Amino acid sequence: MEIDPMETIENLEEERAEDKKSMKLNMMVAVTVAILATFMGICKVKDDNIVQAMQAAQANKIDHWNFYQARNLREEVAKSTVVQLKLAALGRTGGDKEAYLAAIADYEKLAKEQARKKEELKTQAEQDQLDYDASNYKDDQFDLSDALLAVAISLLAVTALTKQKWLYFAALIPTAFGLYMGMAGLLGWQVHPETLIKLLS
User: Transmembrane region positions (predicted)?
Assistant: First the structure.
């Protein structure tokens, strides 16, 4: 069997062209994965800080509601003491009555002070919940970004193995949405796909 040198050269050139296409695709995949990994790392740092803020807000809310309950108990004890002192003061005269009236005034003052402090704690606890919700909103954005970029990286890995260029372009769909959600979290954009987040929650 004779070997045609021209055919061999054509085959080699075709193989080289295929190798160049494959190398170009692999290079595109590698650069895209590197960019996504870097972006995910930046988002992870921000997301970790948000999770810490959420934990702090939750702890503060629990503390403030506990203090609220303590202030509420003190207020109720002071009010019941006022009632008891008023009943005990009935029928008293002179110095005894004056002592009861002074004690009543002190406990009424204490009850008012506890009521005021209780309302302050309620306001703080409600603000803690608002802070938690705001942080959770951003945390959802980063979680969604992380999930979408993980899907994109998986598709890019399959692209590198199969050498299918269409898969690369398919991977760009979750890439674009993942980058968008990550930027929304980083820049404070009001983007929150409720249905998708509820589905993943």
Answer: 25-45, 144-161, 167-189
- The reply to whether 20 falls in a domain is no
CA distance 136 to 144: 12
Q: Is 191 a domain residue?
A: yes
Rg, the chain, Cα only: 35
> Which amino acid type is present at position 66?
N
Alpha helices by DSSP H, the chain: 5-89, 94-162, 165-187, 194-200
Judge if pTM exceeds 0.90. Answer: no
Owning domain of residue 46: 36-200
Give 50-100 pLDDT, tens digit per residue: 999 999 999 999 999 999 999 999 999 999 999 999 998 887 888 888 888
Q: Which residues, other chains included, contact 42 with Cβ-Cβ below 8 Å and sequence gap of 6+?
A: 182, 186
Structure tokens at 142: 């980063």
